[in-house]
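In this section we walk through a basic example: taking a raw amino acid sequence and producing a predicted 3D structure, encoded as discrete structure tokens. The instruction is simple. Fold the sequence below.
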Amino acid sequence: MTAWHADLWMTLETLRCEQAVFARITAVARQLGFDYCAFGLRAPWPLQAPETVMLNNYSEVWQAHYEQEGYLAYDPTIRHGLCSTAPLVWSDAVFADTPELWADAQAVGLAAC
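The resulting token sequence is shown next.
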């Protein structure tokens, strides 16, 4: 685990609301050279309808387009987040199976550094 990663996890353990957690994640992302980031959390309970929190600092235009196109259903970054707590840097390889989503994201300025 990198130093920034360990420091971030230790800090997150002390925060009690998702907005504070996201503010810290955003600050670390900016320190690492990223303008945008997203954070999602799905509670393991209740089992029938677990609560999901998704926060990001993407433009409202992108968020509306993302919802309109139904990208949540097949976004590879969401699939990654369901299986891992590791950060994910977007790349051509990540979106290999979803080129339309990747092209749309790049068109609004969301791309790898």
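Looking at the output, two observations stand out. Strands lie at 38-42, 52-56. The CA atoms of residues 51 and 74 lie 19 Å apart. In the next section we compare this with other chains.
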